[in-house]
């Protein structure tokens, strides 16, 4: 399974904002953006030339890093979104939000998407009573998500729930029983990702 192994704090610094890639650390003074709020590299503090293309590219890169997806898979999501009826940008965000690893983060069952991906790959989660070990699995309305009864990760998941204050309206979570249900597909207004999806559409439409 291909994944991005580059330093995560540098990814946040490159985008100029917190992408919450490291879970609890992002809420402390050790956060890379808090300590050094400029882009990494020799020319990080230099003046950057602004252009329309740069804005679009940075928005695409930020979205990829936020959802922890590589370029080839991101292009596949965009192609699928463009074939669906409706607004392409909103379709793209719905597809990304419906990934199982992202849903676990939204539910509060994982502190970060990297942790959620590992928990899924190791077979700790079940959807509708069947074990799912594919982080990109697309959840659907009425899907029931439960942790494996004999999972060794139960304490890790319970610790992650303490970092979550609210659960999106399109999901329903029981943090005591560690179970959840997908109520419906999210509306754009319910997606809290720091993304301007129209810039991504403009980039890929060239």
Structure description:
The protein has 206 residues and is α+β, with helices and mostly antiparallel strands. The chain contains 9 helices and 5 strands, in the order αααααααβββαββα. The chain has helices at residues 8-15, 32-35, 52-67, 71-83, 88-97, 100-107, 113-121, 154-161, 197-204; strands at residues 125-127, 130-131, 144-147, 171-174, 179-182. The radius of gyration is 17 Å and the shape is globular. The protein starts with 7 loop residues before the first helix and ends with a helix. The mean pLDDT is 83.
Q: How is this fold's topology laid out?
A:
Blueprint: H1 8-15, H2 32-35, H3 52-67, H4 71-83, H5 88-97, H6 100-107, H7 113-121, E1 125-127, E2 130-131, E3 144-147, H8 154-161, E4 171-174, E5 179-182, H9 197-204
Antiparallel strand pairs: 1-2, 1-3, 3-5, 4-5
Helix pairs in contact: 3-9, 4-5, 5-9, 6-7
């Amino acid at each position: 399974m291909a994944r991005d192994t580059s330093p995560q704090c540098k990814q946040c610094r490159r985008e100029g904002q917190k992408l919450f890639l490291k879970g609890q650390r992002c809420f402390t003074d050790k956060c890379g953006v808090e300590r050094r709020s400029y882009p990494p590299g020799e020319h990080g503090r230099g003046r950057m030339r602004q252009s329309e293309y740069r804005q679009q590219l940075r928005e695409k890169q930020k979205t990829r890093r936020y959802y922890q997806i590589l370029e080839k898979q991101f292009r596949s999501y965009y192609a699928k979104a463009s074939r669906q009826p409706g607004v392409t940008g909103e379709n793209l965000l719905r597809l990304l939000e419906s990934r199982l690893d992202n849903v676990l983060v939204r539910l509060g069952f994982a502190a970060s998407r990297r942790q959620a991906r590992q928990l899924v790959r190791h077979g700790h989660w079940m959807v509708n009573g069947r074990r799912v070990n594919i982080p990109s699995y697309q959840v659907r309305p009425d899907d029931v998500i439960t942790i494996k009864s004999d999972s060794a990760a139960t304490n890790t998941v319970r610790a992650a729930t303490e970092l979550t204050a609210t659960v999106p309206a399109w999901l329903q979570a029981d943090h005591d029983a560690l179970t959840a249900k997908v109520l419906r597909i999210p509306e754009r207004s319910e997606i809290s990702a720091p993304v301007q999806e129209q810039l991504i559409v403009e980039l890929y439409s060239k």
